């Protein structure tokens, strides 16, 4: 309950400041991004004049993202980037980055455990 109260106070303060930016000759651009557009507060939505939807990457785009993220990494011969791209449907670029970082840490973690 206390957390909700704090969030409400912060939201009210932010809205007040935001409204102040929209008056006068100020040239301030406010940009927001989310993976959960349905959870954006209606007061925020009213203040955002334009909405640009950037879809999740398709399989071909995921493959290119994976190739870029894995550039310079030593991969086992049986690593199939096409298959990984296929199996990572609904992954964002950020999700792919986290996936690659976690995967690249597995040999390090195994070595630490074995020593």
Automatic annotation (TrEMBL):
Protein origin, superkingdom: Eukaryota
GO terms for biological process, alphabetical: extraction of mislocalized protein from mitochondrial outer membrane
Compartment(s) of residence: Mitochondrion
Residues of the ATPase AAA-type core domain: 5-55
GO CC term, one of those recorded: mitochondrial outer membrane
GO molecular function: ATP binding; ATP hydrolysis activity
Keyword set includes Nucleus: no
Matching SUPFAM superfamilies: P-loop containing nucleoside triphosphate hydrolases
InterPro entries: ATPase_AAA_core (IPR003959), ATPase_AAA_CS (IPR003960), Mito_OM_Translocase_MSP1 (IPR051701), P-loop_NTPase (IPR027417)
Location, primary (coarse class): mitochondrion
Keywords, in A-Z order: ATP-binding, Mitochondrion, Nucleotide-binding
Similarity comment text for this entry: Belongs to the AAA ATPase family.
Alphabetized PANTHER family for the sequence: AAA ATPASE, PUTATIVE (AFU_ORTHOLOGUE AFUA_2G12920)-RELATED-RELATED (PTHR45644), FI08533P-RELATED (PTHR45644:SF3)
Protein name: AAA ATPase
